[in-house]
Amino acid sequence: MERLLPCPPTLLPLLLLVLLLAAAMAAVRSAPVYRADYLVDGNQLVNMQYHMGPVVSGSPTNLYLIWYGRWDPAAQAVLRDFLASLSSPAAPSPSVSDWWARAPRLYADQTGANVTAAFAVAGEHSDSGYSHGTSLRRIDVQSIIRAAVVAYPDPLPLDPYSGAYLVLSSPDVQMEEFCRAMCGFHYFTFASVVGVTVPYAWVGNSGTQCPGRCAYPFAPATDYGGGSGGGGQVLRPPNGDPGVDGMVIVLGHELAELATNPLVNAWYAGDTPTAPTEIADLCLGVYGDGGGAGGFVGNVSRAADGSAYNVNGVNGRRFLVQWLWNPVLGKCYGANASN
Ligand SMILES: *[C@@H]1O[C@H](CO)[C@@H](O)[C@H](O)[C@H]1NC(C)=O
Ligand SMILES: *[C@@H]1O[C@H](CO)[C@@H](O)[C@H](O)[C@H]1NC(C)=O
Prior knowledge:
It holds the Pfam family Phi_1. There is one protein chain. With 339 residues, this protein is α/β, with parallel strands linked by helices. It contains 7 helices and 15 strands. It has a 5-stranded mixed β-sheet with strand order 3-2-5-8-7, sandwiched between helices. It has a two-stranded antiparallel sheet with strand order 1-9. A two-stranded parallel ribbon has the order 4-6. The protein is globular, with a radius of gyration of 18 Å. It binds 2-acetamido-2-deoxy-beta-D-glucopyranose (2 copies). One 2-acetamido-2-deoxy-beta-D-glucopyranose is lined by residues 289-290, 299, 338.
C-alpha cells in the first residue's frame, strides 16, 4: 500500500519481528512494515490474489493533478513528463511504457478488463495557497480533492468513471506519518467527502524532510544498517533533483498499486485488506538485475553525467523506477531486465 524503505539483510530477524508486529497491528492501516525483497522474491510466501474488485481499466484513464503548495516549474515538468511517458510509444526501449506493460498491464479483473495502458493528464489544479495548511493529515487529502473539484473559477472535473486524482505536495508540506511510516499512499475517496468514490494517491517531496528515507537511493539511506550514520548505495538522480527523482519512484510505486488495487479489493497478497501487500510493495529496493540483496539496487544504466536510470521517457528524459511484481513470471520484473 505504501512505499517504504528497503532494508539490508543484516536486519533479517528484526524485519521478521517487525512484520509480525505489523500483522498484529493490522487494524492500523499505516503500520510501519519494513519489507525486504529477498524475503519474498521467488518465495512461496508470495500469494498474489485477486479479490473480485475492479482494476483501473479506463482507456484512457484520466489523471487529475493537484499541485499542493509552492511548486518549482522545473520539478513539475519532470513529473508531467513521467506521467506522459506511461503511455507514450515514443521513448526508446527500455521505456516507462515498457515498464508498465511488463507488470501492471498484466493484471485483469473479473470483467476480463486489463489494467489500462493509456493515461491522459486531463486536468491540473494548483493549490498554491495551502488550502489545508502545511501540516496535513491523511484524511485531508480527500478534502483537498474536494476543494479542487469545487474550485471557482476552474474546478477539476469530478470523473467517477475513468478518473484518478494525484495530490503532489511541495517539500515544505508535512504529512502525518510521512518520512516515518510511509513515503506516499493510495486509497479511494469517500462519497461523503468528495461526492463520488474515485481512486487517488498522495506523494510528497522528501527532498528536505527525509531524502534518506523517501528519496533513497538518491541520498544515503537513513536507516541503513540500523545505525545513524547513513549508508547504502547512493546514485546520482537522472533529473538532477533527489526530491523530485525520488517522487518519481514513489509515484510509480503508488500508480502501479492504484491501478491494480484501486478500491483495495482487487490484487494484493496477504490475508488482510487493512494491510495489503501490493505489487510494488513486493519489490521495494529493486531497480535492476541482481537488486534487493545486500542493499544493492541492481544493474541500472548510467548516463554520460553518471546519473542512474533504468527507463527512458518522453522529451529525452530518463527515470529510475522500481521493479514490480509480474504475475506471469511470479517475480519482480522491470523493463531493464536482461531476459
Ligand atoms: C491481460 O492480462 C492477462 C492475464 O494476466 C494477460 O495474459 C494478458 O497478456 C494481458 N494483456 C495485455 C495486453 O497485456
Ligand atoms: C550485472 O552487470 C554485470 C556487468 O555487466 C554482469 O556481469 C552481471 O552478471 C549482472 N548481474 C546480473 C544479476 O545480471
